[in-house]
Amino acid sequence: MSIEALLRKISPMRNSFLLFAVAMLAAQPLAAADLRVGYVDMQRVMVESKAAQDATKQAERSQQAALKKLEAEKRSIDKLQEAYKRDEAIMSDSQREGRQKEIVQRAQAYQKMAGEMQQDLGRENERLVKKALDPVNDALNDIAKKENLQLIFERTDSGLLFVDPDLDLTDQVIRRVNR
After folding, report:
1. Bridge pairing between strands 151-154 and 37-40
2. Which of 128, 121, 146 is nearest to 57 (CA)?
3. What is the pTM of this model?
4. Element of type H or E holding 135
5. How far, rounded to the nearest angstrom, does the alpha carbon of residue 119 sit from its chain's CA centroid?
6. pLDDT tens by residue, 148-174
7. CA–CA separation, 13 vs 129, rounded Å?
8. Which structural domains are found in the chain, ordered by start?
9. Strand intervals (E) in 30-148
10. Which residues touch 110 (CB under 8 Å, ≥6 apart)?
11. Phi-psi map region of 114: left, alpha, beta (phi>0 left; psi -120 to 50 alpha)
């Protein structure tokens, strides 16, 4: 699974969190001086954290295993088609129909297997993203409590045009996740 796919999975969660955080702040009047914020570059976290790297490697292994199985079935179907073409002239009509039917059934089973594998890989990727994000969320919560922060924004999706580099928590999150 690519980093881009991981980020597409977590983007809706970040947007929901941002809306929730803003709503919570609107409900609690705070003096501007009391508001403590930070930000995290989740793309960097998802590239540099060990949890995300492990998830990516595991997803790639699962994908390679599925592709290997599909390729083996495709080669088998190709051999059936080659044998049919080679022997077609010497087969009876019933033999030709039987072989054609077998090839069609195998091709349909192949398509079904490919679809099921794609769904399985999608579910596995979702599980792996959640597994990779759990320690990140724990690190964010710990840092927010330790630093007494009311808001932590995601750098790339926050809509902020300028942020003070001193508010960047990305390195702290990566260190904490990699412990």
Report:
1. parallel
2. 128
3. 0.65
4. helix 93-147
5. 13
6. 999 898 888 767 767 788 888 889 999
7. 12
8. 3-177 (3.30.910.20)
9. 37-40
10. 70, 73, 74, 77
11. alpha
